[in-house]
Amino acid sequence: QVQLMESGGGLVQAGGSLRLSCAASSSIYNINTMAWYRQAPGKQRELVATVTRGGSTDYADSVKGRFTISRDNAKNMVYLLMNSLKVEDTAVYYCAAARVVTYSYWGQGTQVTVSS
Q1: Who is most buried in 7, 47, 59, 75, counting CB within 10 A?
Q2: For residue 80, what are the CA distances in angstroms to 13, 29, 42, 92, 112?
């Protein structure tokens, strides 16, 4: 079992930055993929960014060039650096972990609110 806890959310003005952190309760070294998802009010949860054990990253088109995902296996941490934030980035952001393919582990989420 891996427990995930997000932090770093908050209220920021459009154009600003935030860094989200995800702390895992146990080693993520053997976790194939760590990811950030988000869910805005009235919308489905969407995949924002992923990072594999080998360090390969992928991003939703809506955040490419603005967000950066990273993982520190030694510290059991995953990060999401969000720059040039837009109002439409407002959502609850979730950290998720997939040992192989399925995201079996989820955090409780952290609220990000971007004001105009």
Answers
A1: 59
A2: 17, 18, 23, 13, 12
